[in-house]
Amino acid sequence: MHRQMIYLGMYVKLQFNELEAFLVDAENSLQSRCEHLVARFSQEAAALPESDREELPGIYSEDFRRLSQSFPHLLRDSFLLTCFSLFEHELERACDQVRNALGIALTQSELHGSGIVRAQTYLKKLAAMPFPDEVAEWNEIVHYEAIRNLIAHCGGIVKRSRKQKALRNHI
C-alpha cells in the first residue's frame, strides 16, 4: 500500500505541474493577444485622420475587455475549480486504496462533511493514518475550498453566500 500511495502522490504532482504549465501558457497567450490588439489599435489610429480616431476605441474596447479582464477571470476560476476537483478526487482515490488494503467496510463517501474533510476523517480516524492537517498548507487548502465553493455555488459573489463573514477572511 505504501508504494501505491507514493505512486499516487507522484501522479498528483505531475497532474498539478501540467495544470500549472497550462495556466502559464494560457495567461501568456492572453497577454500576447492583448499586446497585439493594442499594437493593431495604435497602427490603425496612426493611419486615420484625427477626426476619425474618436470612433476607434469603441471598435476595440470589447475585445480588449475580454482579453484583459473576462478571459483571465474565467481562466483563473476554471483553474481553481479544476485543481480542487483533482485534489479532492485523488484524496478519494487514496481513501479507496486504504479501504481496500485494510479491509475497512465503511467508505469515505458515507461520512459527513465536504470531500476533503471526509477524506481527512477517514484517513485519520478509520484508517489510523497520520494526516498533515496540522501544517499551514492544510489550512490553505481549506481556504481554497471555501473560495472554490464560492465560485461554484455563488458565481464568486460573496453577498450570495451564507458564509459571508468567513469568506471575507479567505479572500
Describe this structure in words.
With 171 residues, this protein is an all-alpha fold. It has five helices and no strands. The longest helix is centred in the middle third of the chain and has 47 residues, at 56-102.
Principal-axes geometry comes out as elongated
Taking Cα atoms only, what radius of gyration do you get, to the nearest Å? 23 Å
Largest beta-sheet characterization? none
Number of strands: 0
Terminal CA distance: 38 Å
Helix content: over 70%
Unreliable spans: none
How large is the share of residues in beta strands?
Answer: under 5%
Average per-residue pLDDT, rounded, comes to 90
Element order: H for helix, E for strand: HHHHH
Overall structural class, as computed from helix and strand content, comes to mainly alpha
Tally of individual helices: 5
Give a short summary of the structure.
The chain has 171 residues and is an all-alpha fold. It has helices spanning 2-47, 56-102, 115-126, 136-154, 164-170.
Features:
5 helices; elongated; 171 residues
Q: Topology of this structure?
A:
Blueprint: H1 2-47, H2 56-102, H3 115-126, H4 136-154, H5 164-170
